[in-house]
Amino acid sequence: MKVAIIGSTGYGGVELIRILQQHPAVSLYTNHSSSQDGSLLTEGYPHLQSIIDQPLQAIDTKKIASEADLVFTATPSGISAKLVPELLKEGLKVIDLSGDYRLKNSKDYEQWYNKEAGDEHWLHEAVYGLTEWLETDLKDAKLVANPGCYPTAALLGLAPLIKDRLIDEKTIIIDAKTGVTGAGKNPSPMTHFSEMNDNLKIYKVNKHQHIPEIEQVLTSWDAAVGAITFSTHLLPMTRGIMTTMYANATEEVNIDQLHNLYKESYKDDYFVRIREKGIFPSTKEVYGSNFCDISIAYDERTNRIMIVSVIDNLMKGASGQAVQNMNKMLGMEETMGLEFVPVFP
Ligand SMILES: NC(=O)C1=CN([C@@H]2O[C@H](COP(=O)(O)OP(=O)(O)OC[C@H]3O[C@@H](n4cnc5c(N)ncnc54)[C@H](OP(=O)(O)O)[C@@H]3O)[C@@H](O)[C@H]2O)C=CC1
Ligand SMILES: CC(=O)N[C@@H](CCC(=O)OP(=O)(O)O)C(=O)O
């Protein structure tokens, strides 16, 4: 299996390198950059010393097609929409990590991303790659839109309740928190150490680009889901996302029933771990791994259900899930090359 990464110099790209370097089915991968053609990755990432010696290559789609079977585009939104059609035209399979192919309605994309949407044909052709809940076989997919980091954590947490119609769809609240690698490698006033350290920030209130993505998927599962409430916070940690979600139960439920529902829903999914009753996950318990850990609680006094899910934003929230999708596209075990034990403590 020969693979190319476009955007290797970014955090998503470097995480793909960490995975593909030890993936048993990947015989070769090449690294491409729009701005650092000919440079060594070790100039920006000395931790790759003696692991990657080849210089970065330019993004030449024909050359990539002559060398690779599949490409990961770990590039910013707006850029992917320009690159992806050219790569597909060359016959390559593509897994795009950006938001460019996730929203089926191009008007939603233009509204929430404030950018021009990509080609309609590929927008509709793209398979939304929430791996555990895929509705189509990825073996025939040419383009996979890898889900956003927050949507991955939120959707895996809500899916069993929504599919079983156990919550009032109009009462869903998703309270989410992330580490700073979610913002990519370029520093900004938002992520600057002196402003982020010892601090907790709420951002993009009612404007986050993941709102329509979460709503699109939830609505496809249950048409009664309308607008959700979703808030995002930035914490002074490197990796990790926690989503704490609340909704009113539609009927009388009890914790054993809810716990069994989650255990049953994910019994065949290696990467989704349902915690024992009363044990809640923390982000460090999935650090550097492809796991999504979930707990559920029920408050009889308010008739409200609470779900907590944690992921590593760069793994299950981006590059890990992208490789899980690659494995499925190629008909391999979905866990191949991804069985990292979380880095703890
Ligand atoms: N960080 C995260 O936790 C997550 C990120 N994502 C998405 O994944 C994608 C990559 O994110 P991330 O790695 O964090 O971002 P970074 O900003 O860290 O890296 C993006 C990379 O894109 C490349 N790039 C920039 N402009 C262009 C261009 N015009 N043409 C080609 N390549 C370009 C840059 O490399 P170079 O200049 O060398 O070409 C850069 O290294 C984004 O779309 C992001 O939204 C999704 C889920 C989670
Ligand atoms: C801290 C931070 O800024 N996180 C990003 C995470 C989104 C992301 O990484 O990208 P996609 O839009 O491709 O999903 C944000 O909230 O926008």
Structure description:
- The structure is a single chain.
- Helix 1 crosses helix 11 (315-329) and helix 7 packs parallel to helix 9.
- The protein is built from eleven helices and 13 strands.
- It folds into two domains: 2-125, NAD(P)-binding Rossmann-like Domain (Rossmann fold, 3-Layer(aba) Sandwich), CATH 3.40.50; 150-313, Dihydrodipicolinate Reductase, domain 2.
- The longest helix is centred in the middle third of the chain and has 15 residues, at 149-163.
- The chain has helices at residues 11-20, 41-44, 61-67, 80-89, 106-113, 120-125, 149-163, 193-196, 210-221, 255-265, 315-329, and strands at 2-6, 28-32, 70-73, 93-96, 127-128, 143-145, 173-178, 201-203, 229-234, 241-248, 272-274, 292-299, 304-311.
- The chain has 345 residues and is α/β, with parallel strands linked by helices.
- Bound molecules: NADPH dihydro-nicotinamide-adenine-dinucleotide phosphate and N-acetyl-L-glutamyl 5-phosphate (X2W).
- Residues 77, 98-99, 148-149, 178, 182-183, 209, 232, 234 line the site of N-acetyl-L-glutamyl 5-phosphate.
Question: Descriptors for this entry?
Answer:
345 residues, six-stranded parallel β-sheet, 13 strands, 2 domains, globular, 19% strand, Rossmann fold, binds N-acetyl-L-glutamyl 5-phosphate, 30% helix, seven-stranded mixed β-sheet, alpha/beta, Dihydrodipicolinate Reductase, domain 2, binds NADPH dihydro-nicotinamide-adenine-dinucleotide phosphate
